[in-house]
Amino acid sequence: MFFTYALPIVYAKPEVLYRNASGITIMILVSACLIGVNCRYDGSNNLSTDVLEFLREKGCFIACCPELLGGLAIPRGPYEITGGTGIDVIEGKAEVILDKGERVTVEFLKGARRTLKIAEQNHVDLAVLRSRSPSCGIGWIYDGTFSSALIEGDGVTAALLRREGVKLVSDEEIA
Hints:
five-stranded mixed beta sheet, globular
């Protein structure tokens, strides 16, 4: 089955809302693959029971996949950032490529911008994102050699969200 886009999934449980220290309700953005949506490049997911429990306790979230929002299909090839990190892609200093060399930087930037727009429209303060992803990775991403080597840095969407003031947490930090 092939998909070329994904609509955000919104869930709100009014009686259990996550509130910050000031008592203000917080909307959480989450990578769709973490809640079981089959949107990974290979058509599978990264379902995390720890993330699901975290979201169940908090009660209010929106899920999306930046790569699908950027127009990439399922399945798609494995992509990595080459020449830097997500912030470098945003600044035009690095690219996102397929293991066979195809460039998809435009699609990753489009997906990041659309994800940011969703975050802004829903007043998102916290994002729970998939670690090591070229879109959602927080703190560590693959180095662009397709050798499973990691470098410090964020994926494209994570970098844009961080730049715009959204607090980021990886699925591994919740586990």
